[in-house]
Each structure stands twice: as structure tokens, then as C-alpha cells.
Amino acid sequence: MNSALRVLSVLGGSILLTFAAGWAFDLLLRRVDARHPETPLWNLLRRCRRALQIVLLAALLKGAYRQIAWPPLQDHAAAVGRVLSLTLIGAGAWLMVAVASAVVESGYARYATATRDPARLRRVRTQVTLITRVVTVVVAIVAVAAMLVTFPSFRALGTSVLASAGIIGIVAGVAAQSTLGNLFAGFQIAFGDMVRIGDTVVVAGEWGVVEDITLTFLAVRTWDERRLTMPVSYFTTRPFENWSRGGIQMTGTVFLHCDHRVPVDLMRDKAEEILQGCKEWDGRGWDLAVTETTPSTVVLRVIVTAKDPDDLWTVRCAVREQLVSWLAEKHPDALPRVLLDPAPGSARGADAPAGTEGRRTARPEAAATLRKPR
Questions:
Q1: For residue 22, which of 54, 64, 62 has the smallest C-alpha distance?
Q2: DSSP state of 157
Q3: Which fold is adopted by the domain 177-242?
Q4: Is the CB of residue 190 less than 8 Å from the CB of residue 130?
Q5: What pLDDT score does 33 carry?
Q6: pLDDT in tens, 157-177
């Protein structure tokens, strides 16, 4: 009975001491955070409270359980000690990852408040994300290795594993060539500033925004809310378009096919009027000119500018739709037509009104597409 009471007292005392230490740790961080509001580090470190409490509880129990003279506990002392060791290693790894994540996030938050350059901010964000994941993977591998060492059977196999490490390394390198290639490509993307989270890219003929970057894959959110998951090695081995590199301002074009009788000067004035009323147009510049002629039509090109790809798409659609509507309402003769000669002696040609033989008007061309601009 005394032994059971001793077990309860040791267990209860350890739990109470752990909760007291966690409460004191949280109180101290709150006071420090109140005195130094310029950095979010102390508030982020409060998330480490649970991991710290588990580490303290496992350490206290591991140091005191052998002093308890309770037969069931002494009979399974080795198993209890191994469980406490595994718990201590796992909680310690959790605590290290939580502390490292808090420090990295705090540094990024302070950098974000002091930097006004969106491109540089996205670059640092990409690097911070990958660094955090690398630290997590390294700590997890070390923790798993430390857990395995606690088992005597793995210690005995250590010599043979080291002796065959060269052969195993060669075989593993050949087998995991693709995975290792993606891993090194992830580092190259993170520190080579090739693509960043938030960049607007065109890959495999798809337009989208980089949503996430890991050590092995990259996720792109397309304009129609689909997600493209691609290996990071794609961006180091194939060409792709990065519309955010060097700034996100863009210049786009709108092509219209019209009849030769189109009033170009009036269309130029109408295009300027449309752009003046379009809030997505950034006002940097515009132009309208005839760029090509064919036997049946002329090709007009309207150049517009916008501050980012989304606004450019909106401006192009607005200009295209309003110009076509204006032509259909004010100058229908400027819309493209198809002239067909009637067959000799056909009834259609004989019955047609004078001056209109063989003339048929085709419908205006479609003014919009379903794909976003390149």
C-alpha cells in the first residue's frame, strides 16, 4: 500500500510540477510579449508550451521511477524506461521543431513589416517555407534514429549496417534518383529565385498562380480554380513563363477583324473612351492601329496595360466586348462580311433585288474566348 501511495505521489507531483512550469513559462512569455510588441517571437513561442510540458513530465518520471519500490513497476522497469525515453525523444523533437518554426516565422513577420517590395517578400516567404520543412525533416530523422538506438537489437546491427553502407548508398541513390533530383531542385528553386509563392506562371499551357512549394512538388492554382501538382524538377529542366518576374505590370493586346470600311479614327476615340471608364486600366499607355489586311478584312490591334495579369484579362475583355457592341450599333457596315458569287443561271441570283445579288452577310466573329490570355 505504501508503494502504491508512493507511485501516486510521484506521478501526481510530477504532473503538478509540469503544469506549474508550463503556467510560469506561459506567464513569462506573455509579460515579455507585452513589453516588446515589435516582435511576435514571444507570442509564437507560447505554442511550445505543450511540447515543453511533455518533455518535463517525461524527464521527471524517467529520473524518479527507479526509486519507487513497487514490485509491478520494478518487474517492468526496462519497458517503462524505454517508453519514457521514446516519449522524451519524441517530445524533444517536437519542441525543437516548434521553437525553430517560431523563430523563423518571427523573422519573416518582422521582415514583411519592413519591406514594401512584393517580389522580394514572396522570395523570402518561399525560402522560409522550405527552410522550415527541411528543419522538420532533419529533426524527425534524427529523432527516429535516436529512438531506434534505444533498442539493443539495432545496436547489434550497427556494425553490419555500417559495413554495407557504401553498397546500400549506391543502390538507394540509383533507386531514388528521381526523388533526389526533385529534392535538389527544391533547394535550387528556393535559393535561385526562379519561382516564388504567389508568382503568376504559365506551365504546360496553363495559366495560374503558384500556391505552394515543397521539397518535391509545386502546386499551381489555375484561373478556373483547378490545382496543378507538378514536380519541382519541371521548373529546372523545362522553360516556363513567369509573369511576376521583374514586376507584375503587363501589356496585352486585343485583335479585331473588321471590314475595310471601318472608321479607324472613330474606333481609336472609342477605345480611349472605354479605357478611361475602365477602373482596371492602370493608365500607363494604350494604342490602336491596323496591323494587317486581307482580301476580305482588316486586322486592328488594341494595346492595353494593367497592373497585374488579372486586371489585364478584365481590361482586354471589356475593350473587346464594348468595341464589338459599338460597331454593331453605330457602324454595322464595319463588321466583317463574306461575299459569295451566285452560280450562273441560279434562281437565287435571278430573284435577288438589284444591287444585292450574291451578297450575304456573315455573323460577327466571336469576341471572347474561354482561356485566359498569355
A1: 54
A2: T
A3: SH3 type barrels. (2.30.30)
A4: yes
A5: 80
A6: 544 444 444 444 544 444 444
Stated length of the chain:
374
**What does the block give as the cell for 44?**
509564437
Residue 145's identity, in one-letter code, is: A
Q: What is the pTM of this model?
A: 0.45
Stretch (H or E) spanning 321: helix 309-330
Residue 35 has pLDDT above 60, yes or no: yes
* CATH class of the structural domain 250-360: alpha beta
Q: What are phi and psi of 148, to 5 degrees?
A: -65, -30
The CA distance from 308 to 310, in Å, is: 6
- Which residue in 363, 360, 364, 365 sits closest to 339, CA to CA? 360
Which residues on adjacent β-strands are paired with residue 165? Answer: none
CA distance 260 to 339: 13
**Cα–Cα distance, 156 to 169 (Å, whole number):** 20
Whole-number Cα distances in Å, 26 to 21, 31, 32, 50: 9, 9, 10, 10
Cell numbers placing 46:
507560447
Q: Looking at residues 327-339, what average pLDDT do you find?
A: 85
Per DSSP (E only), the strands in the chain are 200-203, 206-213, 217-222, 227-231, 241-242, 250-258, 287-293, 298-306, 338-339, 359-360
Determine the Cα–Cα distance for residues 289 and 168; give it in Å rounded to an integer: 67
CB atoms near residue 190 (< 10 Å): 23
Q: Residue 268's pLDDT is what?
A: 92
